[in-house]
Design brief:
The protein contains 22 helices and 14 strands. The protein is an alpha/beta fold. The radius of gyration is 27 Å and the shape is globular.
């Protein structure tokens, strides 16, 4: 009954046909205009604090049920993009690719945009307003191009032909742009076995649900999509939706929580965070454990789910204001003259991390930003915004410290709609078995000369990490699942497949790297994807956020720094640097603080390698800060910080 000898061994290496992936639809968290009961459409208000809490809870529910999206789609509207960010950060999935597509934008409500729903109902009658809101084919009055919320004036839609920017839409019109994206891209990802998350809006999601479940014209009127509650669809091999035991009505998918229970849970969480010391603090380190712990505490303190779901939400105060951030409105073509010809290339090292503060070798280890690092990213974004610098494309590594730095800077510039491309090729140099160890300790054990060779040398590799060490990238799911352009390791494929009793393709990932090795992956990517495509062909202003050694390698190439001199170059954290192709050097934006920036920021012992002809600044800030502020923002060399931060690390 066991079959011929070796048959089970052969079965290990037989690929099974992938079943379709899971689709999760999520309406963004509550926005300020949702709270004010205002027609929103393509207007761009932000999330309320309650809306942010809704999304965090959605992330916990997904983690608890074991859902891990591999591909994410969202719209170009801030409330959806921010919801996506919060969810991915909560789930520790910031490295996942996110596509920001206008086809998933909310329905364009035309002349109703920005108007109170209740006031419109009093003026035009409830029946007409309900037709505008719920029917399949009725369009509201069109939006005039002179209207302050006309999206044709916004830079986020500059790539669209004018006829693609609607002046008004029915639900069918919204479907006609959302469903083709579903058929051509989302459905193909699902067929390939990928789990897909779509974070979008009430009407664009209703359109997708109507298409998936073939809901008729009459029943679609009663379909509701609550904010912040995941709706999960499973499919059979023919991509037909599978009804679950929790499906209700015409929708085959199932919500992970009833709306009334979510409302009660969020209110309980708000009260507990105010009344119970340490409610929001958890010693649990993994996102899954934090999620389950939070849900458990909610369920322990929240009133039991009532059978009839009778939970009142009356008396919720309406927040004044429209949810638009003052001083950081939508960017238009108002970039100041800064003296650099052609599209801008802005390079920035991520903000400071706790590893940086403690003086630990980081490499591919994924440590988060520290409080100081987030402040650095905020200042960088504010400075770029002050100069009206407009970015069209962002490239980062797969490491969360770089992704979050980019996100914070983009948030301050109000360009959350800009696409971010995340790649392992911009990761920090792999420090091998030094990863996670104290730089000061390594210097004491191996001597200062060897320490400097490992840390700053061009072609000196640290000792390699073992292939089964937790620091080896081949044991990190983010790289195992996403990297497809590294050579296959036959030996590791064999060992890991035998252990798992199924075929596991293992890539030959770096166990250690010199700066030269690091450049061997960063420079080709820079030349093909950033220089040739983003800057030259598409003429896009490009922001690159990465780690110190990846940036040192880029600057070696861009600024013609020799292999001998690169040992003298340091890169300060959280500081935007503009590349000037005419002089092949970098420039800084003048923050108006005065003094010598080369003393405030640590560029190493030979800053003239990067700043040529004594020129440091481009542009001139309107800030009124004085030289006295220098002491506040001065960056100390890392070794000096380490000595102050950990005097007793080595006894």
């Amino acid at each position: 009954g066991r079959g011929p000898p070796g048959s089970r061994f052969k079965n290990i290496f037989r690929r099974k046909k992938k079943k379709p992936g899971t689709l999760v639809l999520l309406r963004h968290g509550e926005s300020f205009w949702n709270l004010n009961n205002t027609f929103t459409g393509w207007a761009d208000p932000d999330l309320t604090p309650n809306g942010q809490a809704e999304v965090r809870r959605a992330a916990r529910l997904l983690l608890e049920r074991g859902y891990k999206p591999e591909v994410i789609y969202t719209s170009r509207l801030k409330r959806a993009v921010r919801s996506t960010w919060i969810l991915l950060k909560e789930m520790n999935l910031m490295f996942r690719p996110v596509r920001k597509e206008y086809q998933l934008n909310e329905r364009m409500y035309g002349a109703l945009t920005g108007m109170s729903k209740s006031q419109i109902a009093l003026t035009f009658g409830e029946d007409l307003v309900q037709q505008w809101r719920r029917s399949l084919d009725v369009r509201p009055p069109a939006l005039d191009e002179r209207h302050p919320h006309w999206p044709g004036k916004e830079r986020k839609y500059r790539d669209l032909p004018k006829d693609k920017i609607p002046k008004t839409e029915s639900l069918r019109d919204t479907m006609n742009r959302a469903v083709p994206l579903y058929k051509e891209d989302i459905e193909q990802d699902l067929k390939a076995g990928k789990n897909v998350l779509v974070v979008a809006h009430y009407n664009s999601l209703r359109g997708l649900v109507k298409h998936i479940d073939s809901i008729d014209t009459e029943n679609i009127k009663s379909i509701e999509i609550p904010t912040g509650i995941p709706l999960v669809f499973e499919f059979d091999e023919k991509m037909e939706p599978i009804r679950s035991n929790f499906s209700k009505g015409a929708i085959s998918g199932s919500y992970l929580a009833p709306p009334e229970v979510t409302i009660a849970a969020l209110e309980a969480e708000r009260k507990l965070s105010m009344e119970v010391p340490g409610f929001n603090e958890s010693p649990l380190v993994t996102p899954l454990l934090r999620a389950i712990s939070s849900l458990h505490r909610e369920r322990e303190f929240v009133l039991p789910e009532s059978p009839d779901g009778a939970i009142s939400t009356s008396g919720v105060p309406v927040v004044a204001g429209m949810g638009m951030e003052e001083g950081r409105g939508e960017q238009h073509d108002n970039q100041k003259e800064i003296g650099i010809e052609g599209p801008l290339l802005i390079i920035m090292r991520h903000g400071k991390t706790e590893y940086n503060k403690l003086g630990l070798f980081t490499g591919w280890e994924d440590c988060p930003l520290s409080k100081e690092g987030r402040e650095e990213a905020t200042k960088a974004g504010n400075l770029l915004n002050e100069y009206g610098v407009q970015i069209d494309q962002v490239h980062t590594s797969c490491l969360s410290r770089a992704i979050e730095t980019a996100w914070i800077a983009m948030e301050r510039m109000n360009v959350l709609w800009v696409p971010i491309r995340k790649t392992w090729r911009l990761n920090e140099r792999m420090y091998g078995s030094l990863t996670g160890l104290s730089k000061k300790l390594i210097s004491q054990i191996h001597g200062e000369a060897q320490f400097k060779k490992w840390r700053r040398g061009f072609d000196e590799r640290p000792p390699p990490v073992d292939a089964f060490s937790p620091h080896y990238p081949g044991n990190d799911p983010r790289y195992v699942e996403t990297i497809k352009d590294m050579p296959i390791s036959p030996w590791q494929t064999l060992i890991r497949s035998l252990e798992a009793r199924k075929l596991l393709i293992s890539r030959r990932m770096p166990r250690t790297e010199s700066l030269k090795d690091c450049m061997a992956r960063t420079i080709p990517y820079f030349k093909s994807d950033i220089l040739k495509k983003s800057l030259s062909k598409e003429q896009k202003n490009t922001l690159v956020v990465s780690s110190e050694n990846a940036i040192r390698g880029l600057l070696m190439e861009l600024c013609d720094v020799s292999t001998e001199d690169i040992t003298s170059v340091e890169i300060p954290t959280g500081l935007p640097m503009l590349f000037d192709p005419k002089t092949r050097s970098i420039r800084l934006l003048d923050d108006g603080k005065g003094g010598d920036p080369l003393k405030r920021y640590n560029f190493g012992s030979k800053p003239e390698l990067l700043f040529k002809n004594g020129e440091v600044f481009v542009g001139k800030s309107t800030s009124s800060k004085t030289d006295a502020d220098d002491s506040v923002t001065a960056q100390k060399p890392e070794e000096e910080e380490v000595e102050q931060a950990q005097p007793a690390l080595v006894q």
